DNA sequence: CCGCTTAGAGAGCAAGCGCTCACTATCTAT
DNA sequence: ATAGATAGTGAGCGCTTGCTCTCTAAGCGG
């Protein structure tokens, strides 16, 4: 009946671990941190609680593993969509910002944000997430440097990065409706356009003053 | 011994309700949403659980009342510090942004943010928070209009507002360390300066193009 | 002073939580 | 084939949660 039955131990292991991580991601995005109980994750993954606690000694370990599993994925995805894109005109930069907005609003990034918020109230989790945070941080710095490193000064680059990602993160937080269809009007588009102008105007050739 | 003993029923009522709201604020800011249990709030307020559930039918009712209690306070405080301030030069606007940053990072605003995040995973709470959200939103729009209404176009004003408050909110979320002393360097100052330049450059007289 | 209503106390309950443990199923090395 | 290791099950334990309920304390109108 069932097609592939015979699996090595390592395959079984990786299979359920992967299922658990994926289940944790979906639970976090659509239920939030508090409601992501071990029972809920196991139900979502189609696995018993014993299986979970065989591979992860504690709930927090599962969450940290999920964080690390998810942290760098979006940076890679964003790099893939904007690799080698031009950033000369305001329209070019606005394009990049639109892609970045999509990346920030993606479910995996939503997962990451949920964990960051929970870490604020939980010192242990905060410490456990620190390495992943640093990895993500340097990756974003690298992406920014690849995009604008030779156009913006060493002072402006981190400042622009801070403005853009914090603004998009804040946007993701204040957009309460979980479904992404609820469009908040064209204000956001206008805002991103202004940011694109800000960035291009900092280019040395056409610095406004 | 004890000085003022005789209190009318209304005084007693308002006293414990106020204590409960204050206790909820401090619990939310220093423990987070999940750990703000009714027991914790009662302990912080020096009141029994029975007292809490006499005045608030449910935990959520307490949280919503706290949200409404806190929502408009910061707008008023911000208005007080920047009332009638000049916004002509880049320095003027940077000053206003610095004050706004202080307001956004304040404990009561932290409380508000905690509730907003929790509302994302809880449909009931989301709906209950909606009126307060709208009040806050129009108040912020009014403040922005008072500050920059006659300098920025009707298109730019909401966009600028979105950039600034979302950026500061995102900053508050990603600054994980609960103590405000952990300075992330001068990047934020630089970022706010760039935003101030962006705003002033949108003034019609000196529009760059 | 006395009946009535409201404020407050605090033990206790059902439900859900993270996690354990005794057990079975499956793979692997001899 | 068989023994040992690893993967997976699911009942259940101790604990915390939001909330209820009974009871006492206190203000109020007559």
Q: What does this 3D model show about the protein?
A:
The structure is a homodimer of 209-residue chains. By secondary structure, chain A is mainly alpha-helical. Chain A folds into two domains: 9-56, Arc Repressor Mutant, subunit A; 68-206, Tetracycline Repressor, domain 2 (Orthogonal Bundle), CATH 1.10.357. Chain A is built from ten helices and no strands. In chain A, helix 1 crosses helix 2 and helix 5 (73-82) packs antiparallel against helix 6. The longest helix of chain A has 26 residues, at 123-148. The radius of gyration of chain A is 20 Å and the shape is elongated. At the A-B interface, helix 7, helix 9 and helix 10 of A face helix 7, helix 9 and helix 10 of B. Chain A binds a DNA duplex (30 and 30 nucleotides) through residues 6-9, 12-13, 16, 37-39, 47-51, 53-55, 57-59. Chains A, B: Residues 37-56 bind DNA.
